[in-house]
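Team,

Forwarding the record for the chain on the shared tracking sheet. I've put the sequence and predicted structure together so nobody has to dig through attachments.
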Amino acid sequence: MAAPTEPPISLSPPGDGDIEVTGPLGRGAMGEVLRASDPRLHREVALKRLDSRHRGDAAATRRFVAEAQLTAQLDHPGVVPVHAMSVGDEGPSYAMKLVRGRTLKEYFDQAAGAKRPTPSIALPARLELFLGICEPMAYAHARGVIHRDLKPANIMVGSFGEVFVMDWGVARLSGKEGASTAPGASDDSDGTMVGEAIGTPSYMSPEQARGENDSLDARSDQYALGLILYELATLKRARSSIKAGIPMIVAASRGHVEPIVAGREPISRELRAVIKKATAVNAADRYADVTALANEVRHVIRGEAVVAAPDSGVQRLGRWIGRHRERVATLSMLGTLLAALSFGALVALALAVREWDRAEAEDRAARLVTITTTTTDRARQIDQAFLRYEGLLRGLVGAAERAIRHDEAGTVYLWTDFTDPARRPPDLVASQVYGGPTSFDHPDIVYAKGSAGPEADQHARALSSLVPELQRAVVESAPATADPSSMVLQVGAPIVWSYVATVDGVMAGYPGTGVYPPDYDPRTRPWYTQGTTGEGPRWGRPYVDESGMGLLVSCTSPLRAPDGALVGVAGVDLTVRYVVATFLSPGDLEAEAFLVDTDGNIVVRTGERAAPLGEAVAFPRWSLVTAERSGHALDGDTLVAWSRLEAMPWTYVVSGNAGELLE
């Protein structure tokens, strides 16, 4: 099957019998859509033309024409056919079939607002509608085209149930550099974002939200289809709790999808599994293609097993009984008769029970493997993330040692300057994350009591020169964004603080807030004590942040002079709340998760809780955790699974009711 081509632009001039505009239909990021009449063929059409804001813009014209050409080459009933293209005084335009119907968003609104689901809007009908969306997308992907902006507003449902995938304005050929993008897009959760992340944030795949445009493939569209399937099933958006703009981009980059909660209609285990697989954070964990996703939905509609959630032996038996109800009823009657006549029936029943028990034992064994694998995978994710944070700290350590050694100098803003209108940093802005005026471009400098002197002053200037490295540690802990300042100050990066303190009590804290107790001495803080021992980055126990950020967990490293003498400590902080929300979730397992240190004491646990400060709270079943790197163990009704981390001397542990976990 030949891929669409990009022929040179060639537009015919207007002539007699031109299409006549009769009224507006809608407006997009780059063009407006009008209702029009074709006098030659006596039919109504939709006319799309370049928005007046972009007429005369060569780049916008080329993108507009590319959209028309690409759409015209997608010859599928689910893609609106393009009839003609022309250029006139008002710029380029193209005529296409006028679709009479409503958007999928309007369909959702009707279904969500109905008191009871009628057959046309009930879940089975919605799933059939989803199959209608998958067909043109599978066709487009087979021809090497990815849409990149799939959302309910870009899908039309015709008067007779036909489905059209609309607005291919940011589509592109797979593997082709240079996206077709639309200028002037809005940044709300429904508007198409253009820049590093192209598409609509509330329906973006993680890789799309991270701006990995050159490597996007059909699996990114599949992720958006998975979010649409979520909405078809629940009649709620998959990211409805996230604010528009940068918070939505951040949530999308992390693959945030809210728990699947059924409304008026139950959602089967199989459908939940299909949605989760289609919206897997890792593209490799999704379906091979949209056709495979559609086939799974067909299995759900027919009440059959799905690849995403294989049946247990008991479930397979239940499906068999469901498909052969009459045969089972007949066999039951015969069994009753035979039981009255023959002892053999009891023997047969005993064998059946034995087979049932064997099947259940196999299912439990398989579930144990799944639990252990899930735990190991989560531990690997934690390792990867925390090793990356350690790498950012190593860069800060090297820069700090050089700055102190070579007496480098930067502009010093003492923490007390932040409340002085005449001396405060010029870039102070109100921050939702840090709770007050905060500087993105400058750290605040603190002198411990008794630290004044020429050497301390030189250290203050040296630490003030570390702005790029302090800033990099915070900014690069988050997904790439076009506005890192807003990311850090209004959304919040994973690393909330980066800092350097010297042995004489001088400290630079980033970002600068000027919020410290009057008697603050960095050398008395838990992170400093932790950072003076050993070599290289080390993770410590949670502690309370003095500036109001709650419980923090620190990674610190000593700073050394060329002769090996300690000259200070550098560190980065993550909030315990972030660690729990991002890394500690046990996924689909009905269990609690913990990080436990080598002594068997709880470092942090789900529920945004950490061990009380100064106390060693033991994990109650630490004795079950063997020397093996990963495994599982049973203690009565409790199942414990674990996997040791490599980035830090901790173990990721999952603990829960064995009956619930293994059912």
